[in-house]
Amino acid sequence: FGRPTTQNIHEVQLEVDGGTANLDAQNMSGVEQFTYTDSDENLIVENIFGQPDTQTHRLQNIQPNSDYTALYDSGFDRDVGTLVLTIGSDATPELGEDDAENNIRINEVSFQVREVGAEEYEEVVLSTQAIQDADTYADLREAIDQAATDAGWDEIDVDLRENQSAETQQSAPYQITLSGENLDFQEGRWDADLDVPGDSDTVTRQSVDLDREGMIISNVELESVGSTSQGSEVNIAANDGSYRGVDRFEVETEGFVNLESLMSRTNNSEGTGDDAPHYLQEVELTGE
Question: Which of 30, 37, 87, 232 could form a disulfide with 8, with the two C-beta atoms 3.0–4.6 Å apart?
Answer without folding.
Answer: 30
